[in-house]
């Protein structure tokens, strides 16, 4: 392997209310690893992203993240039981099987960012 090999890629997720979004993502199940006034580093297992204290409505409303998990139903059940939708005034769909071989549901964060939380459907 050469020194030019990629190691990781992270998205910069926008936040309308930086403090509220940090709490939301902690409640969602991410660990806040580091933060300052402009940026927060979140991780969950081997996945991570950067939350930025930056918001443009048109950008946030068209921003999507995809989180691949082992079991989307387990995530949906945990989030439903936690009351995260009512607590943050966000929306979440029910899980469903998709023609592209995934089972997923969507969750829109407090800034309007659309998350697809999915697992691969085993092929028989």
Plain-language structure description:
The protein has helices at 18-28, 57-60, 72-82, 84-88; strands spanning 12-14, 31-35, 39-44, 47-52, 64-68, 91-92, 96-97, 102-108, 114-120. With 124 residues, the chain is of the alpha+beta class. It has a single domain (12-120), classed as 2,3-Dihydroxybiphenyl 1,2-Dioxygenase, domain 1. A hairpin with a 4-residue loop joins strand 7 (96-97) and strand 8 (102-108).
Question: What is the general shape?
Answer: globular
Number of helices: 4
- The SSE string, one letter per element, is EHEEEHEHHEEEE
Q: What can be said about the biggest beta sheet? A: 5 strands, mixed
Helicity, as a percent range: 25-40%
What is the CATH topology descriptor? 2,3-Dihydroxybiphenyl 1,2-Dioxygenase, domain 1
Q: Please write the CATH class name.
A: Alpha Beta
Beta-strand segment tally:
9
* Count of spatially separate domains: 1
Strand content: 25-35%
Specify the CATH homologous superfamily. 2,3-Dihydroxybiphenyl 1,2-Dioxygenase, domain 1
- Overall residue-averaged pLDDT value: 96
Q: What structural class should be given to the helix and strand makeup?
A: alpha+beta
Instruction: From the alpha carbons, calculate the radius of gyration and give it in angstroms.
Output: 15 Å
CATH architecture: Roll
Distance between the termini: 35 Å
Contiguous low-pLDDT stretches (5 residues minimum) are: none
């Amino acid at each position: 392997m050469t020194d030019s090999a990629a190691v990781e890629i992270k998205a910069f997720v926008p936040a309308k209310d930086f403090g509220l979004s940090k709490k939301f993502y902690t409640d969602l199940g991410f660990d806040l690893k580091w933060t300052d006034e402009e940026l927060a580093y979140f991780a969950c297992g081997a996945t991570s992203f950067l939350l930025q204290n930056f918001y443009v409505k048109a950008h946030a409303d068209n921003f999507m993240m995809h989180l691949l998990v082992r079991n989307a139903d387990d995530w949906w059940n945990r989030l439903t039981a936690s009351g995260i939708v009512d607590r943050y005034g966000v929306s979440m769909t029910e899980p469903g099987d998709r023609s592209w071989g995934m089972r997923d549901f969507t969750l829109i964060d407090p800034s309007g960012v659309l998350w697809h939380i999915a697992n691969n459907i085993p092929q028989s």
